[in-house]
Amino acid sequence: MNRRRVVITGIGAVTPLGLDVKEFWAGLSTGKSGIGYISYFDTGNYQVKVDAEVNGFNPARYMDLKIVDRTPKAVHFAIAAAKEAVELARLDMTQEPAERVGVITSTMIENDYIIKGFENLQKRGPRRGDPLFITKVSPAVVSSQIGMLLGAKGPNSSVNSLCASGADAMGTALNHIRLGYADVMITGGADASLEATAIAGLNMLGALSRETDPAKASRPFDLNRNGFVYGEGAGIVILESYEHAQKRGAPILAELAGVGWSFDAYDATAPQPETQAVAISVALQDAGIKPEEVDYINAHGTSTRLNDACETKAIKAIFNKNAYRIPISSNKSMFGHIIAAAGAVEAVASVLTINNGIIPPTINYETPDPECDLDYVPNVARQAEVNVCLSNSFGLGGNNCCLVIKRFSER
Amino acid sequence: MSIDETLKDIVVRIVHCDEEVLTPTSTWQDIKADSLDMVQVLVAVEDTFDIEVPDEDLGELKNLGEFVKYIETRLAEKGTAKGTA
């Protein structure tokens, strides 16, 4: 099938490593930890003490106070990242047919607004409901606010597949351009669902690290890993058809060459290597890439016992002997797991990896696990020419989505 | 604080417009207030003055001056026309 090629022309990130792409990369490429103690609620009787928060973020720097009042925190992160990406892409909306520019993102609902809304309703009655309630709990609000801000009138929606959401949004946006529904898509994810209810619930599932030393809490692929660290932030990417980017002289940072999806249909929390391998395989086929051409894997690498062993198995199933020579690293060792934004933030990291020729390390890797016996780029960043990167996202509950990001070249 | 001043406070807090631009003839359009701003102002007015403003009444109020008069009338009907003491 002769499809339109889709390139990445802009990236933006607000993460626990910093408030823009420059700070993000400075942290990633030097193995810095963005993990600290939970500040949002008193963790006195909670087993989980650490998280990965965005520090020093002032939404008023990026948007009108009215938007700040009306929207959840994920929107604030997303708008900041979207503005950065649009600027980098030199995307001038006054020069674009508005209906050819779309937005597809992912997010998680912030539970605190639901709790407050319910309390308000009980206290004040239905005639005094909160008019902002719906805009604050709607999963569509991240995409709609970006669309409003930019005047983008093309396809606008939100996708959710838990921890695979960010990659899922990007893959869906990719296909919108391939199929001709839009020429430009602003895509990615934003998540600020780091709240007591989420921490307590995930802790019950044994999914979160109960480590008390923040810098050591996220240790993907290490024998002594004991759960993931909940993070927050946003990653936004500008996708456009190659012809469109070329025509307007946009900077081309990389090519989003393929996406692959699968679903475990197996267990509510335990992952399945066989179906993860399907998502990898489908993504490679979609990109027209042979397994031996992949020269870096940006792992899902959550730091849970199950994920990291399972992901290792899935990688071996597809890459066979080659699995041992491909560098694999987990960005989550540095900024935790940004749930609905993870895949998008890690796609931004993958673009930076390709462009800088530096593979970010997996930090806190101290003791090898016999079940995880591949090259995880332990502790120190590595210089390497990366032309083809596979970025894995495997959601709790069985949603898998993998992206193939390539160095751009004229064919 | 007078009804006029209280209403101005509410509008400035919600719409984030400059207080200086607010006059009795200011319309919602003048201060760039959208549908969500109007509903929020309505809820705040109901809370502050302890009156009920039916949605259809809000649609009839063309500017700030009319809104102030409306609130005065409703408070008088309640027999407590003294603003927010």
Query: Termini separation of chain A (Å)?
Result: 16 Å
The coarse overall form of chain A would be globular
Count of domains of chain A: 1
List segments of chain A where confidence is low: pLDDT < 50 over at least 5 consecutive residues. none
Main pleated sheet of chain B: none
Helix content of chain B: 55-70%
DSSP, total strands of chain A: 14
Give the number of DSSP strands of chain B: 0
Structural class of chain B: mainly alpha
State mean pLDDT of chain B (0 to 100 scale): 89
Beta fraction of the residues of chain B?
under 5%
What's the CATH H-level superfamily name of chain A? Thiolase/Chalcone synthase
Question: What is the count of DSSP helices of chain A, taking H or I runs of 4+ residues?
Answer: 14
Helices and strands of chain B, in N-to-C order? Answer: HHHH
CATH level 1 class label of chain A: Alpha Beta
Shape annotation of chain B = globular
The sequence of SSEs of chain A as H and E is EHEEHHEHHHEHEHHEHEHEHEHHEEEE
Assembly context of the chains = heterodimer
| Rg measurement of chain A, Å | 20 Å
Polypeptide structure, described:
- The complex is a heterodimer of chains A (411) and B (85).
- With 411 residues, chain A is of the alpha/beta class.
- Chain A has a single domain (6-406), classed as Thiolase/Chalcone synthase (Peroxisomal Thiolase, Chain A, domain 1, 3-Layer(aba) Sandwich).
- Chain A has 14 helices and 14 strands.
- Chain A has a ten-stranded mixed beta sheet with strand order 5-4-6-7-1-8-14-13-9-10, sandwiched between helices. In chain A, strands 2-3 form a two-stranded antiparallel ribbon. In chain A, strands 11-12 form a two-stranded antiparallel ribbon.
- In chain A, strand 9 (296-298), helix 12 and strand 10 (328-329) form a beta-alpha-beta unit.
- Chain A is globular and about 65 Å long.
- The two termini of chain A are 16 Å apart.
- By secondary structure, chain B is mainly alpha-helical.
- Helix content of chain B is 58%, strand content 0%.
- Chain B is built from four helices and no strands.
- In chain B, helix 1 runs antiparallel to helix 2.
- Chain B is globular.
- At the A-B interface, helix 2 of A face helix 2 of B.
